[in-house]
Each structure stands twice: as structure tokens, then as C-alpha cells.
Amino acid sequence: MNSLANRILILAALLVPSFVSAQTERPNIVFLFSDDLTTQAISAYNYGLDLPPTPNLDRLAKGGMLFENSFCGNSICTPSRATVMTGLHSHKNGIVNLGGALDPKRPSWPKKLKQSGYTTAVFGKWHMKTKPSGFDAWEVFSGQGSYYNPDLHGPNGKRRVEGHSTDVVTDIGLEWLEEGRD
């Protein structure tokens, strides 16, 4: 073999293990989605405003990803959630108002993640009039939900959980993560 062929073969031998490794090492993804929270209310965005500090959100932004050039496709709750789930604007996903229902057959990124071997879950506000699909685990509020002692609906029916909804959802999410997730 000539020198160029040897170099190509050596390069290929070096790249294959890193390519295989890159395919098997996937990042963990935690997606936090909140209502009515503008970027101007999170100090990690540093718009030069005198904002109250948001140290926990700032820590998450520093250790993960901060979307600095993102736009809201629809600012109304249900259409916004459908836009985020499907990647489609409201006129394409069919949800244009608060009364919309997300078609469970519609493709979504949680379904794609699940098909790719990820374990997926959603806890908290869903607000799309259908049961969540594409998730291994889910417990969601009906509509807006209650701030205190919320009813959660899941694959096993409805249950009331004592406490403030923020604490309830946080605790359920953490319990799920600690159940042996890698």
C-alpha cells in the first residue's frame, strides 16, 4: 500500500471507535417548561437590567444550555405547548386557542426520543385535552390544575397530592429520576 492509503486506513481506524463511542454516549435531557416566564425575568440572560437574582435557573443555564436566540411561536398556553411538542406553528399543528386538543397520533420530539431509546416523562401542566403520548411516565393536571393539593391524572387514574403544585411536581419528577435512571 502506498503512503496515502496507509494514512487513510490509520485515520479510519482512529475515527471508527470515536464514532461508535459518540453514538453510544448520549446526553441526558431535562426540559423545563414554565408558563408566563419571559427571558427578561431570568438573570442568566443578563440584559443589563436590575433583575432579582435567579440563582437556580442561572446554575442550570450555566451547566446546560441557554437559548439566547429563541422566539415564541405562540404565547398562549395550549397553542404554545403544542408548538413546543410538535415543532409546528399553530396553523400546522391545529391548536389555535385554549380549547385545542393535541392529536395523540401527531409526531413529537418526545416520541422521537423514545424511539431512539430514551426514557421519557412529563409531570405537571399539560393543558392539551388529551392524554400525553410518547412518554414512559406521566402525571398531569387537568386544565390549569390547582395551586394547592392538585389532582394529577396519569395512566393509573387520578390521585390528589397534598401540597403546593410546584413542590408536588418537583417531588414527583425527582422521585422518577431517582428510580434508577442512568
Question: What's the topology here?
Answer:
Blueprint: H1 3-24, H2 55-63, H3 77-86, H4 90-93, H5 109-115, E1 121-124, E2 137-141, E3 151-154, E4 157-160, H6 165-178
Parallel strand pairs: 1-2
Antiparallel strand pairs: 2-3, 3-4
Task: Record keyword descriptors for this entry.
182 residues; alpha+beta; four-stranded mixed sheet; 6 helices; 4 strands
Describe the structure.
The chain has 182 residues and is an alpha+beta fold. It is globular. The chain contains six helices and four strands; from the N terminus they run H-H-H-H-H-E-E-E-E-H. It has a domain at 71-178. Strands 1-2-3-4 form a four-stranded mixed sheet, with helices on one face.
Average of pLDDT = 84
Order of helices and strands: HHHHHEEEEH
How much beta, percentage-wise? 5-15%
CA radius of gyration is: 21 Å
Task: List low-pLDDT spans.
Answer: 1-21
How many beta-strand elements? 4
Category by helix and strand content: alpha+beta
Tally of helical runs: 6
Termini separation: 45 Å
Specify the biggest β-sheet: 4 strands, mixed
Shape: globular
- Report the helical percentage: 25-40%
Strand numbers in spatial order across the main sheet: 1-2-3-4
What would you say about this model in short?
With 182 residues, the protein is of the alpha+beta class. The chain has helices spanning 3-24, 55-63, 77-86, 90-93, 109-115, 165-178, and strands at 121-124, 137-141, 151-154, 157-160.
